[in-house]
Predict the structure.
Amino acid sequence: MKKTLIGLLAAGILVLAFNQTVEAKGNTQASGSTLTVGATPVPHAELLNLIKDDLAAQGITLEVVEFTDYVTPNTALIAGDLNANFFQHIPYLETNADWSAKLFSAFGVHVEPFGLYSAKYKNIADLPNGASIAIPNDPSNGGRALLLLQSRGLITLKAGVGLTATPRDITGNPKNFRFQELEAAQLPRSLQDVDAATINGNYALEAGLNPLKDSLIIEGAESPYVNIVVVQKGKENNANIQALKKALLSQKVKDYIGKTWSDGSVVPIF
């Protein structure tokens, strides 16, 4: 019996040692290999490409997959085709119950001030009665556009309507603006067809627009719409994600943002 007990204890020690070895290897593997991140081109993919070498030095191969829409990066992340994505803010993530149930904001990086642009008018006061204004057709950014217009006294929204306001919530419209809801990526191209359009910062940059110089009105840097890195729930503490966080929230990235977007079109929050 004594020999049996000794044998069981020895076996237990071996199993424990084996499990600890496997766990150690698992942690090592978690901090290496490939990290696939979906992003819209500017500035998200640009910032990710900036830190590729920093992650490579840690044994992490960063693969950046570019998207030009605001839906596919979340569906691809839920499907497991991506390890993370970087293109959205929390109000947008929360517009879809499936997304908010399965995805998690790992950390925030920057704000891209949202603005109203026009190819026909140089001053907001010049917009005529009945002017056509294009806004994003997704709930969070459409509401963001209307809140921006309300903040400048151009329209009035129903009390308490919040971030998901729609044109149906407008209670005051002194200049009888007409609103067209379009996909966010299409808004820069709509400038030739409408009197003005509210455009997300990244799409404005891609279209060659300078948010501070070209916009008729623009959000301040205090905007709550911080652009975030999103992962599947429960994976926010993964070693690769933590390495990505450290690299993106580095002085190198902060300096790059300050130099590249000195006009304030991209504002770091760290």
Q: What stands out?
A: The chain has twelve helices and 13 strands.
